Amino acid sequence: MNNENLLTERLAIEDVFARYAHTADGYDADGWVGCFTEDGIFEIESDGNRTQFIGRQALHNFICAHIRLLPSTRHVMANHLVNIEGDHARHRCTVTGMLSRPEKVYTFISGWYESTLEKVAGEWKIKHRTVHADNGATFIEGELADHIKPLLGWMAANGTAA
């Protein structure tokens, strides 16, 4: 692949992740699920525990729960690393997520994403995305816990342990 094609593909991959963030934060569940392959996996890892949501229905259920139970978020991704090998790619980036509440803006997630992607019908789609949370302890205790516990409870009841 020449440098021009490589740059075009890299920008298309970064657009998938921008769309992923904007659709989640904009309450567009179908748009968020559309970023994934049919058998896509979204996985949350914190303190060695992993919970997965596999396939479009599970992904849809997850993002709807996220929108309902943790509204007013903003996902910010930076430091993108992309490795493209034909119709497959690996991606890694830093993530910070903010949660706006009347009393304060919280950092609800700090960590990084690791993803694999596939090109499907000419479009890049997420095959497997893992978010690694650095701040898992704040989910259980402290001022953020009250806001995030409903989503954590839903995830425990509806996700698949990995």
What brief labels describe this structure?
162 residues, alpha+beta, Nuclear Transport Factor 2, Chain: A
Topology of this structure?
Layout: H1 3-25, H2 29-33, E1 36-46, E2 49-54, H3 56-69, E3 73-85, E4 88-101, E5 104-120, E6 123-133, H4 137-140, H5 145-158, E7 160-161
Parallel strand pairs: 1-6
Antiparallel strand pairs: 1-2, 2-7, 3-4, 4-5, 5-6
Helix pairs in contact: 3-5
Structure description:
- The chain has one domain (3-161): Nuclear Transport Factor 2, Chain: A (Roll), CATH 3.10.450.50.
- The chain is 37% helix and 46% strand.
- The chain has helices spanning 3-25, 29-33, 56-69, 137-140, 145-158, and strands at residues 36-46, 49-54, 73-85, 88-101, 104-120, 123-133, 160-161.
- α3 packs antiparallel against α5.
- The N and C termini lie far apart (35 Å).
- The relative contact order is 0.20.
| Rg from alpha-carbon coordinates | 16 Å
* The CATH class: Alpha Beta
Determine the oligomeric state from the structure: single chain
Helix content: 25-40%
Taking all residues together, what is the mean pLDDT? 94
Sheet with the most strands?
A: 7 strands, mixed
Number of domains: 1
CATH topology: Nuclear Transport Factor 2, Chain: A
Low-confidence stretches: none
Rough shape?
Answer: globular
Number of helices: 5
Q: What is the end-to-end distance?
A: 35 Å
Order of helices and strands: HHEEHEEEEHHE
Architecture in CATH? Roll
How much beta, percentage-wise?
Answer: over 45%
Could you tell me the number of beta strands?
7
The order of strands across the largest sheet is 3-4-5-6-1-2-7
Summing up helix and strand content along with how strands pair, one would put the structural category as alpha+beta
